[in-house]
Amino acid sequence: MISAADLYKLPKAELHLHLEGAIPLDFLARLINRNSPGALATPENLKAGFQFKNFGEFVRKWMWTVGKFRSETDFSDLVLAVAGNLIRQNIVHAELFFSPFDYPPGGLQAEKITEQVLLGAEKARAETGISLLFFADIVRNHGAETAAARVKRLIPFRSPVLAGIGLGGSESGFPNEGFFPAFETAREAGFRVVAHSGETQGAEYVRSAVTGLNAERIGHGIRCLDDPEVTELVRSRRIPLEVCPTSNVKTGVVARIQDHPIRKLIDAGLIVTLNSDDPSFFDTSLNQEIEILIRDLGFSAGDVLTLLKNNLTASFLPEEKKRSILTLYP
Known about the structure:
TIM Barrel, single chain, eight-stranded parallel beta sheet, 13% strand, alpha/beta, 16 helices, 8 strands, globular
């Protein structure tokens, strides 16, 4: 019989992970202390500061964190540091969001950030063998009016590593409909497309992500359960959900981990994957998410094994590579 320890040792994939949200706290402390002479940042005091009462507080702390970057070259180092943490969890493939348009206040250019992210991914592959795929997050909060223009700026960088466009940020006040043209531009350019929807807002956001954005996967998506018709839409179209239990609790979307609807999503016949989202902000990891499902939600190791298989099958890896990794699974 498989155990939790066996799951930790398996070669795994993670599909919903933000590069900036996975920043190792020692890396962030060095960044702050280097760029702000006299600062005394430590991993311990940074960790203590990452507490949120709601999604809005999380966004404010996110913007504080990204404001600590002063050079585009920091991003290649960040990718290497994050890759090291992933490898230590036996994560052999990860699909990460990064937000190249979050940095104009610091004078950083989206194109140069993107170049450095891709350079870091190549270095990480050469040094560790890890497979990294990136989605550039065009972020709702930057407005729908400029979204298509932002996508066009990224088209020259499309590659097997910069494979897609994502849509994150605050759902409230920024409905999916405004981003339909940008996502059409992305698809026409050959990008894969995914979208956060149904995290803080209701099932209609999930519906429009599927039918209007034509998202191939939904980030979070837990509010699809608010409407049986939307749940059936997601099920019938076999749209995978990138579910992040601890994240939903830490941002106040779900009151307690025991209240998380992941079991209901599975019982509804949906394709559920397991992810950590912003592990440095939420003090978690994919292996800790495994532990939480078993300890707090009554999942068996076999139940979690199914989710980890979903992580691989729902990934954008080539089919041959998926099959190769899955041969190592019981």
